[in-house]
Amino acid sequence: NAGVMQNPRHLVRRRGQEARLRCSPMKGHSHVYWYRQLPEEGLKFMVYLQKENIIDESGMPKERFSAEFPKEGPSILRIQQVVRGDSAAYFCASSPDRGGGNGYTFGSGTRLTVV
Amino acid sequence: SQELEQSPQSLIVQEGKNLTINCTSSKTLYGLYWYKQKYGEGLIFLMMLQKGGEEKSHEKITAKLDEKKQQSSLHITASQPSHAGIYLCGALNSGGYQKVTFGTGTKLQVIP
Predict the structure, then answer these.
(1) Do the beta carbons of residue B97 and residue A48 sit within 8 Å?
(2) Distance, in angstroms, between B5 CA and closest chain A CA?
(3) What is the DSSP annotation of B3-71?
(4) So what's the pLDDT on residue B96?
């Protein structure tokens, strides 16, 4: 049973390009969370999704960022027209339900570098 | 909004020594997680505490939540190099799903 799979592990984009980050949750998990870890800062919540639904996107920047979790396939975090300030580690976590008793399972993250 | 402050920010200890990391919340905690992050990797779930006064242990790591549910401590006994990493406490959102507000972390180095 594979864990949460994120790809790519490392992504380099030039300013103005688009970045697409993928997250495949653990088998049987239908709840996905995205977090961002900026250099020397803590982990910040971005968005919580269930299959085909965005439940809470209160941590998403208002512009250029979007997330989806389609019925089939991985969850995608999309950043349009990237800027240097978007350089960070982006982590995805999944859980089988809404409750929190056993914590999340985190992926290893995608490290985005904008040059 | 809820804020979590961790202390110390960083810690260097000799192998075999005990250590404690503290996490203080600006609001009463609905639930409190402890995670460990190896440098450059994802987070590993350690423990979750929900009841005031609760204490849990896993191997040589013990976490406690105070009675008022605003402070937690993580204690490592007889530290080993494998304990090195970043320890993060996280406050569980009270909205019934796992939205977590994380502290800024404590970097632990264990010198052999």
Answers:
(1) yes
(2) 11
(3) -EEEE-SEEEEETT--EEEEEEESS--S-EEEEEE-TTS-EEEEEEE-STT-EEEETTEEEEE-TTSSE
(4) 67
| Closest approach of A100 to chain B, Cα-based (Å) | 6
pLDDT tens per residue across span B53-62: 999 998 899 9
Any idea what DSSP says for residue B83?
G
For residues B4 and B47, what is the distance between their CA atoms, to the nearest angstrom? 17
pLDDT at A20: 98
pLDDT, tens digit, 9 for 90 and up, residues A61-89: 999 999 999 999 999 999 999 999 999 99
Which residues neighbour B1 within 8 Å (Cβ) at sequence distance 6 or greater?
B101
User: For residue A39, what pLDDT is reported?
Assistant: 79
Task: Give B60 or B42, the one with higher predicted confidence.
Answer: B60
From the list A42, A43, A104, which residue is nearest B98 (CB)? A104
Number of Cβ pairs < 8 A linking chain A and chain B: 69
Q: What angle do CA A7, A102, B96 make, to 5 degrees?
A: 95
